[in-house]
Amino acid sequence: AREQGFDAEELEGDLAAAAAGPLPVLAVVGRPNVGKSTLVNRILGRREAVVEDRPGVTRDRVTYEAEWAGRRFKVVDTGGWEQDVLGIQASVAAQAEFAIETADAVILVVDATVGATDDDEAVVKLLRRAGKPVVLCANKVDGFSMEAEATYLWSLGLGEPHPVSALHGRGTGDMLDAVLAVMPDAPAETFGQTLGGPRRIALIGRPNVGKSSMLNKLAREERVVVDATAGTTRDPVDELIELGGKTWRFVDTAGIRRRVHLVDGADYYASLRTAAALEKAEAAVVLIDVNEPISVQDTRIITMAVEAGRALVIAYNKWDVMDEDRRFYLEREIEQELVQVQWAPRVNVSARTGRHLEKLVPAVETALASWESRVPTGKLNGFLGQLVASHPHPVRGGKQPRILFGTQAGTRPPRFVLFASGFLEAQYRRFIERRLREEFGFEGTPIQVSVRVRE
Ligand code: GDP
Ligand code: GDP
């Protein structure tokens, strides 16, 4: 019963988390097939099942929220990233780079039944350079007799290998204790910036849409503030730019300015960059080149921003060279391809001429305000009550699931939890989400609606 019922403790946890601000990030890295995804699932336990129960989200998510020993943190699963087009080395190096950029602590998973390989050694080197705390997971130690194998992994020079069976759960608790012992309470990147610090924007979009042109235009026209904290040990990754009387932090600009040309896997690399920028940002500005058909890559980047739960603005760029015929098709494409993000504010700009760039900041501010907005519980339930009365869930198998109660469990982005007397069909959940938007706005922010069934 507790599995599905109203869990006040858990709800309190959600509320506390919403108030507590950004969580530290734990990245799980390692070669393909060592058991990263299995381990991440093990760490998440049953909680994740609830988070997944939100409409409209079917694709892989990279980042999850987890809790261990009363502490909450994010887990980045790099397990789904391996792609055949990339060699194993490139894939592992990319994971490590991602971890270096975004994580506060790292679990390196090694297959103890195989032992340390050259690829493992290579990733250790990268991780060591990053200076982030690393815990070594000797995985696939399914029984006591395997523990000797784990001790060989001392050779990696990362300290004690923690023998674990991700599959059976053996040893994972002790390993997580070790992780928490070295993980900071708040993410380094955002620490101290949550109250009154500059808001963090990621400029993202596929290659050649005009990201660096936009960054340059914004930086040139307005005052660029020199960031004293960046660039101590590596390239400055963020730039502070004053726009509309406020300072904004454009994150991960090194990735925009430093053009990366990889023969293989350039797309793959670009998508890691996007994920890294999103991880650090509060708002995403996705650029689209209006002179090209909206592509799968464009929609994938938008999906990444939505699934990362960031405030979203879509900037249609290169408006200066668009011809009238194209304009007609563009509007049609937007209607068809971007129907999922109709709620995102839109600006039609030219990074080259500067046309309408001044509209960017107000759009981002609108999106951020929605992202942080909170609907009082009374108001929400008044709305839900009316909605349920006028549009009840269809009867299924002689039963009619009802929404009993709802609450906004968190912000940034708004997260709602609905308690229902039975399973709510996806279509009905989407309907509720649509009506929530109609009622409360949420322009520029994804919202998450999860359902807990109370039998
Ligand atoms: P990833 O590619 O690193 O994410 O690896 P997966 O999590 O997909 O696991 C690869 C394979 O190893 C799967 O068949 C898992 O069932 C298996 N595996 C993962 N962890 C363990 C473990 O602790 N013991 C054993 N025996 N197999 C495991
Ligand atoms: P990035 O790869 O997303 O950083 O794209 P760039 O900023 O390097 O731009 C790619 C190309 O598009 C360059 O040749 C730019 O000069 C051009 N470009 C960028 N923005 C505009 C624009 O608003 N109008 C026009 N006509 N060209 C643009």
Short recap of the structure:
The protein is an alpha/beta fold. It is built from 15 helices and 16 strands.
Describe this structure in words.
Associates with the 50S ribosomal subunit. Residues 24-187, 199-372 form the EngA-type G domain. It comes from Streptomyces marincola. GTP 2 binds at residues 205-212, 252-256, 317-320. The chain has 455 residues and is an alpha/beta fold. It has 15 helices and 16 strands. It has helices at residues 8-20, 36-44, 47-52, 88-102, 118-130, 147-151, 172-182, 211-221, 253-257, 266-280, 296-307, 324-337, 360-371, 377-390, 426-440, and strands at 25-30, 63-68, 71-77, 105-111, 134-139, 161-163, 199-204, 224-225, 239-243, 246-250, 283-289, 311-317, 346-348, 403-410, 415-420, 448-453. The strands form 3 sheets. A 7-stranded mixed β-sheet has the order 8-9-10-7-11-12-13, sandwiched between helices. A hairpin with a 4-residue loop joins strand 14 and strand 15 (415-420). Residues 1-6, 46-61, 82-86, 189-195 and 228-235 have low confidence and may be disordered. Bound molecules: guanosine-5'-diphosphate (2 copies).
